[in-house]
Amino acid sequence: MVVRVYIVSSSGSTAIKKKQQDMLGFLEANKMGFEEKDIAANEENRKWIRENVPENSRPATGYPLPPPIFNESQYRGDYDAFFEARENNAVYAFLGLTAPPGSKEAEAQAKQKLHA
């Protein structure tokens, strides 16, 4: 399974740049494998996210804002959903991945199973 983050390499929006850097930095720091796809430099990438981000996950403008994140071709969410998962120690589950043993997320999942 390949996690793909769709970014824009040239954006006038500091908010979008900050969100992209935050997401990519977290994935790199936690050694989570991912592919970075540029929608500014590649029309195919831009077309692909327009076709694959669900209608109900798009802003009023209709075009998805970077950085949407996918696992293979499955849409996993936008920056806000990623941030919420990170705050809840649930990034692996958010991405559709198995948390590695010893991680905070794996420990939290084990505790939930004990209390279920």
UniProtKB/TrEMBL annotation:
It is found in: Cell membrane; Cytoplasm, Cytosol. Keywords: Cell membrane, Cytoplasm, Membrane, SH3-binding. Signal peptide: none annotated. The keyword Cytoplasm applies. It comes from the Eukaryota. InterPro entries: Glut_rich_SH3-bd, SH3BGR, Thioredoxin-like_sf. The keyword Cell membrane applies. Its main location: membrane. It holds the Pfam family SH3BGR. Monomer. Interacts with PFN1/Profilin-1. Interacts with ERBB2. Interacts with ATG12. Interacts with BECN1. Interacts with translating ribosomes. Belongs to the SH3BGR family. Appears to function as an adapter protein that bridges proteins together or proteins with mRNAs. May function as a ubiquitin ligase-substrate adapter. Additionally, associates with translating cytoplasmic ribosomes and may promote the expression of specific mRNAs. This is SH3 domain-binding glutamic acid-rich-like protein. The lineage of its organism: Eukaryota, Metazoa, Chordata, Craniata, Vertebrata.
